[in-house]
Write a structure and sequence with these properties.
The chain is mainly alpha-helical. It has one domain: Rhopdopsin 7-helix transmembrane proteins (Up-down Bundle), CATH 1.20.1070.10. It has 11 helices and 3 strands; from the N terminus they run H-E-H-H-E-H-H-E-H-H-H-H-H-H. InterPro entries: GPCR_Rhodpsn_7TM (IPR017452), Olfact_rcpt (IPR000725). It is found in: Membrane. Pfam families: 7tm_4. It is a multi-pass membrane protein.
Length: 308
């Protein structure tokens, strides 16, 4: 254990990573910066706005909106772990990140992506705590095996984020165990979450069809469509990454897909849920009584082009 700690101390001081990002396209650096900056601003305002609206509106203090507030929190944190460094690397020449910084980025990104995987599996407030806990367990396990690998000097990572496959590709030691652990973890997380989604969808469909009210069925199906849209985008992107062959020619596809699920999806979730859930719109009388509610509602209206 002491030798392991000394090894990590030496690596922390001596090892650096260079995130290539999209540096092979110098003419696109500024346009990409503006696009990603806009997406990040919308992501931050959209997700924090969703959290604040749910918090201040008593009508939204229900299990479903409790879940949505935590989904927004995860999206905000996940995007904030990745996007600021991506933006920085688009406008500076020095794209280095320290060993500690790279490992910490992977650690926190892993927590939030695993947490979101299981949050999206079932609209249930009771599973929110379990999703966070499992995300932390998975991230600690994967990070531990990454720290057992050896690295030397400057290491070029052909990505804009410290992603697991990119990190182990520059390791000086055998990454077999780390690769096996993440394969088992990812396979378990994807299969178990998709099974939960399938069973939940069948159960919800049966319950909705038993509703006597046509309006109630329409509202329930509207919520389900929002949820299934978010699930399809999130899991579809991850499954696409599974299918991409591990070769140099595929790195561009990996980077594009990584942009989608680390930068774009956190922006889309509040759009998807708010546009299809009319309960998010606060009534006019409450707006007049509560200036704070009015301010936040106007922000949401402007951000998502919602009708008052």
């Amino acid at each position: 254990m002491a030798a392991f700690d000394r090894n990590q101390e030496n690596q922390s001081a001596e090892v650096t990573f260079i995130l290539l990002g999209f540096s092979e396209y110098p003419e696109l650096q500024m346009p990409l910066f503006l696009v990603f900056l806009t997406i990040y601003i919308v992501t931050v305002l959209g997700n924090l706005g969703m959290i604040m609206i749910i918090k201040i509106n008593p009508k939204l203090h229900t299990p479903m909106y409790f879940f949505l507030s935590h989904l927004s929190l995860v999206d905000f944190c996940y995007s904030t772990v990745v996007t600021p460094k991506l933006l920085e690397n688009l406008v500076v020449e020095d794209r280095t990140i320290s060993f500690t910084g790279c490992i910490m980025q992977f650690f926190f990104a892993c927590i939030f992506v695993v947490t979101e995987t299981f949050m999206l599996a079932k609209l249930c407030s009771l599973l929110v705590g379990a999703s966070y806990s499992w995300g932390i367990v998975c991230s600690l396990t994967l990070t531990y095996f990454l720290l057992k690998l050896s690295f030397k000097g400057n290491n070029i990572i052909n990505n804009f984020v410290c992603e697991h496959a990119a990190i182990i590709s520059v390791s000086c030691s055998d990454p077999y165990m780390s690769q096996k652990i993440i394969l088992i973890s990812d396979t378990f997380n994807e299969i178990s979450s998709l099974v939960i989604i399938l069973l939940s969808s069948v159960s919800i469909f049966i319950t909705v069809m038993k509703m006597p009210s046509t309006g109630g069925r329409h509202k329930a199906f509207s919520t389900c469509v929002s949820h299934l849209t978010a699930i399809t985008i999130f899991h579809g992107t991850i499954l696409f990454l599974y299918c991409v062959p591990n070769s140099k020619s595929s790195w561009l596809m990996v980077k594009v897909a990584s942009v989608f699920y680390t930068v774009v999806i956190p922006m889309l979730n509040p759009l998807i849920y708010s546009l299809r859930n009319k309960d998010i719109v606060i009534d006019d009388s409450q707006e007049r009584r509560d200036k704070t509610s009015l301010l936040i509602l106007n922000f949401q209206l402007g951000l998502f082009n919602k009708k008052g």
